[in-house]
Design a protein that fits this description.
The chain has about 375 residues and is α/β, with parallel strands linked by helices. It has two domains: about 170 residues, Periplasmic binding protein-like II (D-Maltodextrin-Binding Protein, domain 2); about 170 residues, D-Maltodextrin-Binding Protein, domain 2. It has 17 helices and 13 strands. The N and C termini lie far apart (about 45 Å).
C-alpha cells in the first residue's frame, strides 16, 4: 500500500468508527458480497481493507468483503436471478430500480443516503493514442471519416448507456452546470426537480447522427467498460476510447503515459453511480447493520479522499477541488434535467425494441 493509502487507512479507522455501535460481548464474523459494475475493482479492493480494519477496531467483529464485477446491467440481472448481494454499487439508478422491482430492495432506496445514494460522480471522456494523431477534441470529432471509436454495449454496460446519453445530450445541446461550485450544484438540483418537458428526445437529426456513429464508427461493442479498455489499450483496436474517466486514467497509468493522452471534451454528462443495501438478503443473513455502515462510510472524508485519488469525483466539494488538475471542471448536464430520469431514458433508448435496437445494425 502506498504512503497515501496507508495514511487514508489510518484516518479511516478513526472516522469510520463513528458510524459503529458499541462492541458486542464476543466477536462475530461477517461476510458481505458487494456486487458492483465493471471498473470499480481497484476502488473497492482498497476501501474494503479500510472499512474492515475500522469495523474491527470499533466492534471487535471481523468483516470479509467479497466483490463481483461486470457490466452493470448484467450484474443487476445476476442479483435478480439469485446472486446473494448484501450491497449493490452499480453504474446507474435504473439497474438498482430493476432489483427493487424484483422485490429484493425496498422502495425509497435512493433517499436513504445523500445525493440520491450516489457517494461520488464521474463523467465520460476520451482516451487517444499518444500525440492524438486524429486530433480528436470534441464529440463532433468522433464523426470524422475513418475515426474508429471503442465503447461498450448499451444493452449490458452502464458506462455505455451513459456514453449514449452523453452523445445524445451534446448533439441535442443539453443545458449544462458547474458541479465544482455549491451554486452550480444547487442550480442543477433545482433544474432537475422542476423539469417537466424534455424536448431533447425529439431534437432534429440526433437519432440519425447516433445511428451513423454506431454503425459507421464503432467496430466492436464489448460487454463492459473494462472490456472496452482492454480492446483499446491492450488489443490496440480503434483511435479513441470512450469511457469513465477513472478507466482512462487507469489505462494511462498501467500502460504508460507515453502511449496515451486523455482528452476532456468541452462538455459531457454528470454520471452518478448509486449504491444500495439489498434488503431481502441482509435481513435473511443478519448483515444489515454492517452493510449499512459499509455504504455510509463511502461519504466520509477518508473514503472521499480515496475516491479522488482513484479518479472518481468526490461529492465533498472541498476534496473534489484538490483533484481539479486531473478532474477538470468541465460543464456537465444531468440525466434528470435533460432526459427526465433513468426510467424514461431506459424505456426510450435501451429497452428491447427501443431506440438503440432500432438504430444499431451490426455487420454480419
Amino acid at each position: 500500500m502506498t504512503k497515501t493509502l496507508t495514511y487514508l487507512a489510518l484516518g479511516a479507522a478513526l472516522s469510520l468508527a463513528t458510524l459503529l455501535s458499541g462492541a458486542p460481548a464476543s466477536a462475530a464474523n461477517f461476510r458481505l458480497l458487494n456486487v458492483s459494475y465493471d471498473p470499480t475493482r481497484e476502488l473497492y479492493t482498497q476501501y474494503n481493507e479500510i472499512f474492515s480494519k475500522a469495523y474491527k477496531a470499533k466492534t471487535g467483529d471481523n468483516v470479509r468483503i467479497e466483490q463481483s464485477h461486470g457490466g452493470s446491467g448484467k450484474q443487476a440481472r445476476s442479483v435478480i436471478d439469485g446472486l446473494n448481494a448484501d450491497v449493490v454499487t452499480l453504474a446507474l439508478a435504473w439497474d438498482i430500480t430493476a432489483i427493487e422491482r424484483a422485490g429484493l430492495i425496498d422502495p425509497g432506496w435512493e433517499k436513504k443516503l445523500p445525493y440520491n445514494s450516489s457517494p461520488y460522480t464521474s463523467t465520460i471522456a476520451f482516451l487517444v493514442r499518444k500525440g492524438n494523431p486524429k486530433n480528436i477534441q470534441t464529440w463532433e470529432d468522433l464523426f470524422k471519416p475513418g475515426v474508429q471509436v471503442i465503447t461498450a454495449n448499451p444493452k449490458t454496460s452502464g458506462a455505455a448507456r451513459w456514453i449514449f446519453l452523453a452523445l445524445w445530450g451534446v448533439l441535442g445541446k443539453a443545458k449544462t452546470h458547474d458541479f465544482f461550485t455549491e451554486q452550480g450544484v444547487a442550480e442543477a438540483t433545482v433544474a432537475a426537480a422542476s423539469a417537466k418537458k424534455f424536448p431533447i428526445y425529439d431534437a432534429a437529426g440526433v437519432k440519425e447522427k447516433i445511428a451513423e456513429f454506431f454503425n459507421n464508427h464503432v467496430p466492436v461493442l464489448d460487454a463492459g467498460a473494462r472490456g472496452a479498455t482492454v480492446s483499446f489499450a491492450q488489443k490496440q483496436i480503434g483511435d479513441v476510447l470512450l469511457n469513465w474517466e477513472n478507466e482512462l486514467w487507469l489505462a494511462r497509468d498501467e500502460f504508460g503515459p507515453e502511449k496515451f493522452d486523455i482528452v476532456y471534451p468541452p462538455t459531457s454528462i454528470l454520471t452518478e453511480p448509486p449504491v444500495a443495501v439489498v434488503d431481502k438478503v441482509v435481513d435473511r443473513r443478519g448483515t444489515r447493520a454492517v452493510a449499512e455502515a459499509y455504504l455510509k462510510g463511502l461519504y466520509l472524508p477518508d473514503a472521499q479522499e480515496l475516491i479522488g485519488e482513484l479518479h472518481y469525483r468526490p461529492r465533498d466539494l472541498a476534496i473534489l477541488k484538490k483533484f481539479k488538475a486531473d478532474l477538470p471542471a468541465i460543464p456537465l448536464f444531468t440525466v434528470d434535467e435533460t432526459f427526465g430520469g433513468w426510467e424514461k431514458a431506459q424505456t426510450t433508448f435501451f429497452a428491447d425494441g427501443g431506440a438503440f435496437d432500432q438504430i444499431y445494425h451490426p455487420a454480419r
